[in-house]
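Hi support team,

I submitted a single chain yesterday and got back a structure, but I'm not sure I'm reading the token output correctly. Could someone confirm the output below corresponds to the sequence I sent? I've pasted both exactly as they appear in my results page.

Thanks,
R.
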Amino acid sequence: MAEGETKAMAYIPEVILKKRKHKEESLALTRKTQLEFGKYGGKKRKVEDIKRPEQFIKEFRDKELDLIRMKQRTKRPKSASLTPKSKLLFIIRIQGKNDMHPKTRKILYNLKLRRIFHGVFMKATAGVLEMLQRVEPYVTFGYPNPKNVSELIYKKGYGMLNKQRVPLIDNTIIEQALGKHGILCLEDIVHEIANVGPHFKEITNFLGPFALSKPKGGLQGKRASYKDGGDTGNREDEINDLIDKMN
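Hi R., thanks for writing in. Yes, this is the structure output for that exact sequence:
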């Protein structure tokens, strides 16, 4: 073969060429996605989403201030508003996000109030009242009437069985969880809660928190106590008006 003669190009089957093209397109698409959403698939953070040092300082100061105020509330004489007129309380979390101290958050979690507008039935014991005094700026509470007790359980009630959330639509579920205490149906649960019966604790441990709606007309937006024109603290019988707006 002459030196100037061009070498013939090697033959590549069409199927291989198609595979190469598909692979190159896939790599290009993957790279584009990584650039748009980040290496691990999360959305790119906007500049305004990145916290500045002063924001961290403000959040830290807010949390420390929350702890100081909580300690001050516990030193105050027990107010008349924290003297229960009923054995049964219904407590609603209405505030609290990034400005809470971890100790405040822990108390709210102990009350099963992990989210805003969640509500729970509680027995008005000295321990519960002390916790309510500590987290007063974040909750409101009062004495639910039998009508609201029944409606909350029937409309928004659910139980926890084997760490699974189960709706209270079948009495067999209730019998399985509480049958050993003589609680066999929804009517038994309502009766036991409304009268703070001997198995109140077992039932409230079985029930999950009630997810309420944002109240019609909203709240005042003030952390002052209800008796001073705010939203928080003891509403006594007027808690029923709030439940009606949120149920």
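A quick pointer for reading it: The first strand starts at residue 88 and ends at 93. Let us know if anything else looks off.

Best,
Support desk
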